[in-house]
Each structure stands twice: as C-alpha cells, then as structure tokens.
Design brief:
The protein is mainly alpha-helical and about 140 residues long. It is about 45% helix and about 10% strand. It has a domain of about 90 residues. It contains 5 helices and 2 strands; from the N terminus they run αααββαα. It is elongated and about 75 Å long.
C-alpha cells in the first residue's frame, strides 16, 4: 500500500487542479464544461437608442465579451492553493474582495468548482505523483 501524500505533493496536485479551473474560467466555461451564459447586452433607452452593456465595455478594453471573470484580473490573480496538508489541498481566493466577487459571479452561474475535465486533470496529477513516489514499471501479465 502506498503511503499518504505529503504536503509538497498535495501542493503540486492542488496547483494542477487550480490551473485547470483557471483555464476553464478564462475560456468562459462553467462547471459542466459548456459555454457560460452570455453577458447581458445594453438596454434600449427611452429614445430608442441602444445603450452600451458590459460586453461592449469589455470589448473597448480589448477583453473577450464573454463571462471569463476578467476585468482588471484581480479576481483570477488571487485564486491560489490556500493550504496544502497531508492528503488535502484547499483552493480559493486569498483576497476577501475577490472572494466576494467570485461568490456573486458563481450565484449567477457556477463557474468556480470542479468540472469533469478538471477532475481528469487532478487525477492525472495524482497518477503522476504516484509514479514519482513508486518509480517501478507496471505491466499487464497474461
């Protein structure tokens, strides 16, 4: 039987999960690995003109007009592996303001969480750590 993972190994596994989650959010995908809901367009004014909406403001700044949690970048920069102990890693936002923004955004549509592709990335990281820990070669014997 293999022993428990060390805090250092759990840091690497947690970072692999974090990288997968951050890349998925940046692509504008939700926890089901499908495209997130589109951003709301601007409203029509009383004169019948179209007022700019959030997607328009994002495009003016050179950002993607999708739900990717990028405006200043502060929220995604504060996403870190907060704690790594034996057999456990905690991913979250280290800045309280960013944590509040992520909470509000996730109430609109759940994007912060583990999707099936994220779980596969974590499983690959676990397998990599097991191979490091036990560098023997495994083969099927018939």
């Amino acid at each position: 039987m293999l022993g428990p993972f060390s805090a250092e190994q759990m840091q690497r596994i947690g970072q692999a999960g974090l990288d997968s989650i951050a890349a998925r959010i940046h692509r504008g995908e939700n926890c089901d690995d499908s495209a997130a809901k589109p951003l709301k367009p601007g409203r029509v004014t009383s004169r019948g003109n179209q007022a700019p909406g959030y997607p328009d403001y994002k495009m003016r700044r050179g950002l993607q007009p999708i739900r990717d949690w990028m405006w200043t970048g502060r929220t995604m920069r504060s996403l870190k592996v907060k704690r790594a102990d034996e057999n456990r890693a905690t991913i979250g936002f280290i800045d309280p303001r960013s944590d509040t923004i992520a909470h509000i955004n996730s109430r609109r549509e759940k994007q912060f969480g583990v999707s099936p592709k994220d779980r596969a990335a974590v499983n690959a990281a676990v397998l990599n750590e097991l191979r490091r820990q036990c560098p023997g070669r495994f083969e099927n014997v018939a």
